[in-house]
Amino acid sequence: MPLSEEIVSASSPRHYLLANRALVRTRLKHLALAMEDVKKSLQIQPSPIGYVAIAVVLLFQGDREGALCTFNLAFHDCVLHDISFLLLLKSILVFESGNEQEAITRIEHLVTRANGDNDDEATYLCTQARSHDVDM
Fold first, then answer.
1. Rounded to whole angstroms, how far apart are CA atoms 20 and 43?
2. Biggest CA-to-CA distance, the chain
3. pLDDT tens for residues 10-32?
4. What does the buried/exposed string (b/e) look like for 81-102 if buried means 16 or more CB atoms within 10 Å of the residue's CB?
């Protein structure tokens, strides 16, 4: 079922569906609609995906500082398991906001940390970051 149909057909749309649609609408440059979706998402339930989505909308609107500050709220509602992924997303947001060197430094720290961890996600992150270094 398409995302919009699933949202419309639900008596109360799920917060993550609205946040996901906000990200799609942002990519399509439908920023007003994206902001409406993400605000509804956060009203239903504050969540990391909601805060990530609003940060992306703000970045597309040209509010770099607001995007970076808002993104930090994602860490308040996340589970421990999500932190590495959120840190990686934050690095991407920092890069996209024009702070390339800071983003590279953040990724280097994540890679260093991943080398010491014994979990699959950290290993994957490390592998992906190093393969990106080779491509550069």
1. 15
2. 49
3. 556 788 899 999 999 999 999 99
4. ebebebbbbbbebbbebebeee
